[in-house]
Design goal:
Radius of gyration: 30 Å
Oligomer: single chain
Structural class: alpha/beta
Largest sheet: 5 strands, parallel
Shape: elongated
């Protein structure tokens, strides 16, 4: 039977080794790359159950297909419980066996590809692979690393393009949940009337177009992490429903009569000042504190110039590798100076896009000034103090202009502006109100 199977399985293109008993089979598995073991359950030196235990104890063990005699179904079920992929009963048709072999090896190949991709993703978002040369970014990453081991909700704040989703992914792929789903959701991109259905799911007939049951994104993220980007865009009614999910760890799909439990870590992000929204009454205070158990503030690129060139080199390597054929490009000294002089209103995302543009336009081995947009080549910012002196500004005018400039750089975020200026929020609010009153009197 063994010789017959070696011939038949070899005929369809598989490489086959054979062993005259269980111990010899275990030795082959230990010394040679094997993807599938086909074994009888009854052997004199080592029965199939002991062979199963020995093989499955090793990491990356092959699939095992047990062959048993007709009428020994209980033995086959026991083999599956011990870790066998499947069983087949004698007598059998060779076509039946080949079909099971194809299925087992196909699933193993898919599983290995998934594992490989998982390792690649985990490597990409490992803390050591995140570009962070500046002190501000290193401090932020240190906090991310400490937060990753927790299950607490995290609020990531920062301007658009600073890399908030990158931080959310780093949190997930360095956490105990890394083998489970990471589900990103851009709330600003979802129509308001569909957000509840997207987040929590719906039952067939719950509304006019609900022709079938739909699983929500929270259920999809069960045991893993859901990333709620642009949380400041969430309408008041949905804020209340999200709060209930966070409190109860339960969701209720639209049209459902009962709730279902979910185990999801929530990472939320915003480029808006939620504390201002609290003052205005447009964001719930109880939801804010539920989301903001741990806050991670990602500084804009202009506040961490030490990261500009390392990030540019990183993006250049990525973009060059995608060229056909792959190229090895560098940045000219003039380009490096232009990148350092630019203020990067679009932050890291803008830098990545600019490097991809330069890579596409570059015809030599070095990206030059001609490969950059005009607005980057021509640095229009003049020295702030020199300009203020030339315009003969008073100290009060200088203070106002500086405060307004920092506020603009922080995209109107008063909390971060106050932190940069070394003021408390109340003092900043009072100064801004004074400026408004003066303007109205003119």
């Amino acid at each position: 039977m063994r010789e017959f199977l070696v011939d038949e399985i070899g005929e369809v293109g598989y490489g086959v080794a054979s062993a005259g008993g269980g111990r010899e089979g275990v030795e082959i598995v230990r010394t040679e790359p094997v993807d599938l073991v086909i074994t009888d359950l009854r052997m004199p030196d080592l029965d199939g159950f002991d062979l199963l235990r020995d093989i499955k104890a090793s990491p990356g063990s092959p699939h095992i297909l047990a062959i048993t005699a007709f009428g020994s179904i209980q033995s086959a079920i026991k083999a599956v419980k011990l870790g066998a992929y499947d069983y087949i009963t004698k007598p059998f048709e060779i076509e039946e066996l080949i079909h099971v072999i194809d299925k087992a090896l196909g699933e193993r190949n898919l599983s290995q590809r998934v594992d490989r991709l998982q390792r690649e993703v985990e490597g990409r978002f490992a803390f050591g692979n995140v570009v962070a040369h500046s002190e501000a970014m290193r401090e932020a990453l240190a906090l991310v690393e400490r937060a990753a081991a927790s299950h607490a909700s995290v609020l990531v704040t920062g301007e658009s393009g600073t890399g908030k989703e990158l931080i959310a992914r780093a949190l997930h792929y360095n956490s105990p949940r890394k083998q489970e789903p990471f589900v990103p959701v851009n709330l600003a991109a979802l129509p308001e009337n569909l957000i509840e259905s997207e987040l929590f799911g719906h039952k067939r007939g719950a509304f006019t177009d609900a022709r079938a049951d739909r699983i929500g994104l929270f259920a999809e993220a069960d045991k893993g992490t859901i990333f709620l980007d642009e949380i400041g865009e969430l309408a008041a009614g949905l804020q209340a429903k999200l709060l209930r999910v966070l409190q109860e760890q339960e969701i209720r799909p639209l049209g459902a009569t009962g709730s279902q439990t979910v185990d999801v870590r929530v990472v939320a992000a915003t480029n808006r000042d939620l504390e201002d929204m609290l003052s205005e009454g447009s964001f719930r205070e109880d939801l804010y504190y539920r989301l903001n158990v741990i806050q991670l503030d990602i500084p804009p690129l202009r506040r961490r110039p030490e990261d500009i060139l390392p990030l540019a080199e990183h993006f250049l390597r990525e973009a060059s590798a995608k060229q056909a054929p792959p190229r090895q490009l560098s940045l000219s000294a003039d380009v490096q100076q232009a990148l350092l002089a630019y203020r990067w209103p679009g932050n890291v995302r803008e830098l990545q896009n600019l490097i991809e543009r330069g890579t596409a336009l570059c015809r030599g081995e070095q990206i030059g000034l001609a490969d950059l947009p005009n607005y980057v080549r021509e640095r229009r910012d003049t020295d702030f103090l020199s300009s203020a002196t030339a315009r003969k500004l008073t100290l009060a005018d200088l203070e106002r202009e500086y405060i307004e400039r920092v506020l603009e750089e922080e995209s109107g975020n008063k909390t971060r502006t106050a932190q940069r200026l070394g003021l408390d929020r109340k003092t900043l609010y009072r100064k801004l109100e004074d400026y408004e009153r003066r303007d109205r009197k003119r």
